[in-house]
Amino acid sequence: MSEDVVCGWVTFEWAYEGTLLGAVALDADNHLLYVAYVVVVGENNDDWLWFLTVLQECLGGLKPVIMSDRHKSIVYAVPRVFGVENHCYCSIHMSENFVAYAGKLGIRRDASKDLMKEMFNRVVYTAIAAEYGQALEELRHYKRELAQWVEDNEPEYWAQSKFNKDRWGKLNNNPIESWNNWMRALRQMSIPYLISGHL
Which of 32, 40, 119, 174 could pair covalently with 47 via S-S, beta carbons 3.0-4.6 A apart? Predict the structure, then answer.
């Protein structure tokens, strides 16, 4: 696994006590790799820190780019283990947060939402800083508060032109969410069956 592989994280709780934490990655052919998984007490700072520390040891010191949904415990643990420069946020989760914020500003009509999403995507997917600035300015002309939201929500972790490491064009956790959805079918199983059920 190269240092530039994008890894993502999934979690879920099920009928039995505990939470499954998982790390998955994409290989050079975009095939999903199960890197590691564990059942812990819950999704908290200590469990994430422990899991990522063990994972980092297993990777032999490699520091892949870590993509997450910005859960507070992952935001706490990733910089301590892999370094803040190796953490990026899923653009889909950021888009959902952006749309929710826009709803609070009264943007609810479908046509307005579509235009706003299109402008937000230009901010996210533009590859160079000058185009990012233009896209942000366009958003500012549409509604100043939306551009301010972008600036206040750490675009250096999710906007393509702002993130300093190569993400190989991977800006969202869709492949990881596929694994998560598949694992959801195992929620009613006990821990031993849950662990062996997806091998």
Answer: 40
With contact defined as beta carbons under 8 Å apart, do 18 and 40 qualify?
A: yes
Q: Rounded distance, CA 178 to CA 46, Å?
A: 26
Q: How far apart are the C-alpha atoms of 102 and 149, rounded to whole Å?
A: 9
Looking at residue 170, the DSSP 8-state letter turns out to be -
CA distances from 52 to 66, 80, 111, 173 (A): 11, 9, 42, 18
3-state secondary structure of 47: helix
Backbone angles phi, psi at 12, to 5 degrees: -160, 155
Model confidence pLDDT, tens digit, residues 172-185: 666 666 666 666 76
User: Residue 100: pLDDT above 60?
Assistant: yes
Residue pointed to by tokens 């952006």: 98
pLDDT tens sequence across 84-99: 888 988 888 898 899 8
Contact 7, 58 (CB under 8 A): no
Q: How far is residue 107's CA from residue 165's CA, in Å, rounded to a whole number?
A: 34
Instruction: Give residue-wise pLDDT tens across range 64-89.
Output: 888 888 889 999 999 999 988 889 88
Domains of the chain: 6-90+173-196 (3.30.420.10), 91-157 (no CATH)
Residue written as token pair 């937000």: 120
